[in-house]
Design brief:
- The protein is an alpha/beta fold.
- It has a domain of 64 residues.
- It contains ten helices and five strands; from the N terminus they run E-H-E-H-H-H-H-E-H-E-H-H-H-E-H.
- A five-stranded parallel β-sheet has the order 2-3-1-4-5, with helices on both faces.
- Helix 1 crosses helix 10 and helix 7 packs across helix 8.
- The longest helix is centred in the middle third of the chain and has 25 residues.
- It starts with a strand and ends in a 6-residue tail after the last helix.
Length: 198
């Protein structure tokens, strides 16, 4: 059975990796998706975020304005720690619920902010990390996701370095080239583990 953690900084290609895994029949539990769900009104983290940061973080419909929240927390280490404390516990509980309900023999948990304890908590047999040079990540965030240069750099600075991440994972997957090259690297890793891939 494959029980893989997928780590990697913003703009490093994690979504491409998870797409290849899903096409190969691996169920993907994506903590980025969960993070969006838990901050919806009535969900676990919504009230805690409003209590911590005020109603200014909500839009006219009462939903958390994720872009505004990011703008006020990523440049500020104290605010970012507060955000992470509020959201990480709720995300972890949802991942565990999904794992307990899953009937799939192969799964991957996409955890951008991977920490060593996730290996045990999420029952992972190995952890892969996509890795990209910071300037490449900045360029991708500006070109493909509409970030400003400052916002892109703040996001990247808020994460652990490539070298620190590579020290706590099993497989580092360089991704400074094309999507096609990354997809072939993932297919090769799956074939090495006995998976049938197209």
């Amino acid at each position: 059975m494959l029980q893989i953690g997928i780590a990697g900084g913003i703009g490093s290609g994690k979504s491409t990796v998870t797409s290849v895994l899903e096409r190969a029949g691996v169920r993907v539990i994506d903590t980025d998706v969960i993070a969006r769900e838990i901050v919806e009104p009535g969900q676990p983290a919504w009230q805690a975020l409003v209590d911590a940061f005020g109603r200014a973080v909500t839009d006219e419909a009462g939903r958390i304005d994720r872009k505004f929240l990011a703008a006020i927390t990523f440049p500020n280490p104290t605010a970012l720690r507060r955000l992470n404390v509020i959201t990480h516990g709720a995300i972890g509980m949802e991942v565990l619920r999904a794992l307990d309900e899953s009937k799939d023999s192969h799964y991957a948990v996409a955890v951008p902010l991977f920490r060593p304890e996730h290996r045990t908590v999420f029952r992972l047999s190995e952890v892969w990390a996509t890795e990209v040079e910071p300037e490449v990540a900045v360029s991708r965030l500006i070109q493909h996701r509409g970030f400003s240069d400052e916002d892109a750099r703040n996001r990247i600075r808020s994460q652990i370095s490539n070298s620190d991440r590579s020290a706590i994972v099993d497989v580092v997957i360089p991704n400074n080239d094309s999507i096609e090259a990354l997809e072939e690297r993932i297919r090769a890793l799956l074939r090495e583990r006995g998976m049938s891939v197209d």
